[in-house]
Design goal:
The protein has 287 residues and is an all-alpha fold. Helices cover 72% and strands 0% of the residues. The longest helix has 23 residues. The termini are far apart. Pfam families: DUF2336.
């Protein structure tokens, strides 16, 4: 009997895929289209998750998918819902935000990976979603992240190195804002390490410096000219241009950043700093 049930399930899956693919081609007559939609609704209520999952994958990229059917699949178990949540254009922003508010982390992450997320959906994710979904939306290059949302993400997950790194890698955030967020969040990282690991204080300090310096290189690397000088001066006022950061910049061969860092630490202009650095010629340094 188990084998018969499995065979029947496979047949239903095959039929569901056939009807879904035929519907997705959008070349049916009006009557055929109406009948196909009725059949698809029946398969969306199938007792087999395997059948419903196959149906969702076939319909996820279909622009003509009826909204009520898209909603039904999106509210199903996560394996059925994921392809619809990631791709279906039939779901409205209101649909997506409602699902975000249900606090299902996997569904939130699926939504965070959608292309061209609206401002309201991005904000809802940053404000309400679990950490993996917030990291995913920050990593989503097609999602525009506003400065206020980046700050909110850093406040909500101040002890998350993954969220911190994702903020630092954003190219649409002003470099000075990203640097400020990184410095703010590094305090949370230190607290996390101290809470969970029994390590000597000097080791913790070095570990936090390494994490912070690596994250800082993202926003600093996107700044140029006077903008870079302004950011570095702000960091210097907060005693954040450390020897370790300058050393990392030197080893990475970032000539512009090294010149600016030296100028700020020495309290001189860029030209004077270059003269000091290269008084025996630019080959003096390994950059």
């Amino acid at each position: 009997m188990a084998q018969a049930g499995t065979a029947d399930e496979a047949q239903r899956q095959s039929l569901a895929e056939f009807v879904a693919n035929s519907f997705a081609r959008n070349d049916l007559s009006d009557d055929e289209n109406r009948i196909a939609v009725e059949i698809l609704h029946r398969f969306a209520r199938d007792t087999s998750e395997r059948v419903r999952t196959a149906l969702a994958h076939c319909l996820a990229h279909t622009p003509i998918l009826p909204t009520d059917l898209a909603q039904k699949l999106a509210y199903d178990v996560v394996h059925v819902a994921e392809p619809i949540l990631m791709h279906s254009l039939s779901l409205t922003d209101a649909d997506l935000i409602a699902i975000i508010c249900m606090d299902d982390g996997q569904k939130q992450t699926a939504i965070a990976k959608r292309s061209d997320l609206s401002r309201s959906v991005v904000h809802s994710l940053i404000e309400r979603a679990q950490e993996p979904a917030v990291e995913a939306v920050l990593d989503n290059k097609s999602a525009r992240i506003e400065g206020d949302d980046a700050r909110l993400a850093a406040r909500r997950f101040s002890k998350s190195t993954a969220v911190l790194a994702a903020i630092a890698k954003r190219h649409d955030l002003p470099a000075d804002l990203a640097a400020d967020i990184v410095l703010h969040a590094s305090a949370g990282i230190r607290a996390l390490i101290e809470d969970q690991l029994d390590l000597p204080t000097p080791f913790i300090e070095n570990l936090v410096l390494r994490v912070r310096d690596e994250a800082l290189r993202g926003p600093l690397g996107s700044a140029v000219g006077n903008h870079l000088l302004v950011i570095l001066r702000r960091l210097h006022d907060r005693q954040q241009i450390t020897d370790s950061l300058v050393l990392r910049i030197t080893l990475l061969g970032d000539k512009d950043m090294l010149e600016a860092a030296i100028a700020v630490r020495a309290g001189m202009g860029l030209v004077a700093a270059r003269l000091q650095l290269y008084h025996r010629g630019p080959r003096l340094l390994p950059i």
